[in-house]
What we know:
This protein is an alpha/beta fold. It has one domain (2-187, 216-249): Stationary-phase Survival Protein Sure Homolog, Chain: A (3-Layer(aba) Sandwich). It is 24% helix and 30% strand. The protein contains seven helices and eleven strands. It has helices spanning 14-23, 71-82, 102-105, 107-117, 140-155, 221-226, 245-249; strands spanning 2-6, 28-34, 53-57, 63-67, 88-94, 121-128, 162-169, 178-181, 187-197, 203-214, 229-236. The strands form two sheets. A nine-stranded mixed β-sheet has the order 3-4-2-1-5-6-7-11-8, with helices on both faces. A two-stranded antiparallel sheet has the order 9-10. A hairpin with a 5-residue loop joins strand 9 and strand 10 (203-214). Helix 1 packs across helix 5 and helix 2 packs parallel to helix 4 (107-117). The protein is globular and about 65 Å long. The mean pLDDT is 93.
Amino acid sequence: MHILVTNDDGVQHPGLLALAQAMQPFGKVSILAPDHNWSAAGHVKTLDRPLRVKEVVLNGGLSALACDGAPSDCVALALLGLLEKVDLVVSGINPHANLGHDITYSGTVTAAMEAAIGGVRGLAFSLDTPENHHTPIQYEEAAAMAAEVVRITLKENLPPEILLNVNLPYRSRETIKGYRITRTGQRIYRDELVRRADPRGRPYYWIGGDVPTGLGEENTDIGALAAGYVSITPIQLDLTAHSWLEALASWNWPQPNSSSGKEPQA
């Protein structure tokens, strides 16, 4: 079993180190992660420039590879042959939850998506650290919960086209309510356009606003996490709105000229 560990917060992030250490009992572990923070970068494939990879040493002496590309670039490089055959990709541990529509922005989750595209099982792990948490984030308990999810995933037959988005409560293992299979909930974003001027009077903009919230409906990732459960959401990359296929087909779409078999002349 060869496990690739990556993230979107950078190769030196403590969440990645905790996850890599927790993966050691399952087999060979390789680390290939971005050399800087790519949070909220989404699913990226770098095609307009070369990608560079260098060896680094993490705290505790673990060897790793750092890439100047995105998290999904790191996974693509590994699966394309930079590393020996990879059997499982785990991404994280992100310091904040990835819920609802967050998965389309999250580099943590899209790294697991890249694994699914490459035919390899992928799991993304995020920790629901409380807002305004001013002391160093502790990842040990979250890493132990992540290891439990990996253990069960390896035992069962998860198809490679399905990835798991796992959100972990910021609690000890003894105080969580359990593990719950969930669907994506409805995230509520409170973004605002912030206008400023630089010292020369030229305008620039920030996307600001309050921290996102969500509807804590039962059986959603948002509701389960708020209730103290580990939320495990299966994600597939088929984004087709299957329920709309028949309805769209019934619309009055333009048809070719049936009398001549030719397209109408302009």
